[in-house]
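Problem 3 from the worked examples.
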Amino acid sequence: MTSRVALRGSYRQHSPKAIKVGRPSPNERLEVTLVLRRKQSAPHPWALDSYLSHDELAALHGADP
């Protein structure tokens, strides 16, 4: 499976000390961790007078595109 998604604003210049060691094996599994910024910090659940639905929580405090 080959797929590539370019994320706007995600390109970073390689370190001048980086060394290319070869091409990765197409049969090797690659894991990626994404750290996303929230639109605003979410309050502690006990600090709210009512519960937010999943959609409300995502709209208010989800990842900021």
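Problem 4, a separate protein:
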Amino acid sequence: MKLNIGCITEAGLSKKNRTGYWRYFFPIVDKEKCNGCGICELFCPDSCIQIKDKKCVVNGYYCKGCGICARECPRAALTMQPGGEEAE
């Protein structure tokens, strides 16, 4: 199969490039509200959210602060705050 120019066939260096350092907002998780449903993990465009021990955990090294996770959370367990944590 011939690939057109511009097709990405593998992740390359994306795991080495920690892109979260330039964000302004960061999602803060309210552990009391979070039930680990995984909606935030599903919608995160950078795959920087994981569900661990039935709670949402955000990887600050890659989170760009877009806020999609907070908008999609059905329990409002994520809120976008200026600054935020560096990394987990």
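Solution to problem 4. The beta strands are 25-29, 49-52, 55-58, 78-82. The CA atoms of residues 41 and 61 lie 16 Å apart.
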